[in-house]
Write the structure tokens for this entry.
Amino acid sequence: MRRRKRDDGRDEGRRAARCGVDRVSPSAAGVVIRDGLTDRIDRRLRARSVPLTDEELERPAIVLAPHPDDETLGCGGLIARKRDRGIPVTVVFMTDGAQSHANLVDADELAARRRHEAAAACAVLGVEPSAINHLDIRDGALSASAAHATELLSPLLDTARGHQLIVPHPDESPLDHQATFHIADQALKRSGDTMDALLYPVWLWDQFPFTNPWSAPRARHSSRSILRIAARDRLGWRIPSVLTRRIDVSSVLERKRRALEEHATQMARQDGRDDWLTLEDVAHGDWLARLLQPDEYYQDRAVGAGRGSAMSTESTEGADR
Ligand SMILES: [Zn+2]
């Protein structure tokens, strides 16, 4: 759980407060419009996206998670489905997650708690303890530590030649998420390697119309203001042309949910504190609900030295439902 551009604990709190606390409900007409737009994009997303093939599902994978919980939120269903078939999955946690509640708890203590939670979540998803790696970069400092992180990641990618790379989508807002993609890309370019990657969205879903963009407190929003927001924030419309691959994770959704519960510092208020924000607080739960849908969506792309040879699914619109 890390968000947006300024990766410090105070910003985390402010952002969560904006998402979950200050936001207000729109007018009834606004809700109808937003739901209608969401349905329309969902239908398009489903119609355009191509299910992962058996060959892709049965390919060993290395998953890069900027923070403990991203592996479950973004691709927990895919991990569980691979593990159910006995396919090797390695998980690399890039940072220690120590900033998620830095205003409330000592960073080292929080890092230790999150490391423990990550192991428990991976166990639920079926990932072997020996397949879990921590780079232990400080949460929020991944971009600034890119050279060091590349050194640490390179040997792990070397041992994963021929695997599928599962990595956050580079269009995500949090800097650690962007940095994770770019560090992997750099490490592969340096060694002259290319990997077939699946890019997973986490914070990409936190945009209109999937989540509620209204931030001004005590305002009531008319349908006109919703259309203004829609015109301004067009990213949501782009989603179906970006996330062109999908996998049905309904058979493992309950496990994904249980794995997520293992990230207790992100899912439940801790230490008796009412001001301990959780993932459910983001956008009144809309964002978390989006990540627990029966399908996970991805973009496929070659990453590294030969990224120009990326597979394209752009021409497959409507090919599969
Ligand atoms: Zn994250």
